[in-house]
Protein: Transcriptional regulator, ArsR family
Organism: Streptomyces formicae
Amino acid sequence: MDDKQESRPPATRRITDVGTLKAFGHPLRLKLYGTLRVAGTATASQLATQVDEAVSLVSYHLRKLAEHGLIEEADAQSGDARERWWRTAQEALSFRHEDFKDTPEGAAVHASVIRSLIAHHREQYETYLDQQASWGEEWRRAADQSDFLARLNSAELSELNTEIHALIKTYEERGKAAEAAGDTEGRENVAVHLASFPFRNF
């Protein structure tokens, strides 16, 4: 790796075009993007092992993500010049219904990607449930699954989401700062899934 410090990707990218959202929404690409986000940097071979797919297939889908600027090449992490290292091109992605609602295709793609993400989150949580005995008592006590009910207007819901996101961000930055200072003991990847929406009847 070069002696110079590699620049950090921008914090958030908002996807507003159907082509990019469709490229991101492929099930394997969703999994690859999520795996790469956790890893920081990785090669196609490393990612193929993580997702249990052929390296050639993973390489193809990584190129498709790169074509849309969702991932980018990273500085080499080894002396093997043949290895191509990747990282996400942003720390987080967002895509809003209002950017896709004006065309049937856009609305359908947006809904499909959201459903795929929900399925991925469920799979991730169910994997934890299957493995929770191995995590130990402290982690089992710390983990949480809750739901809440509030009577809000749309402005209050938006304010609630903004405050929750800001709070989570402070913990993300705290963890990064601690690890940068060498405080890595006992730290694990932690997923926080949030869904807030209005409803009248189930």
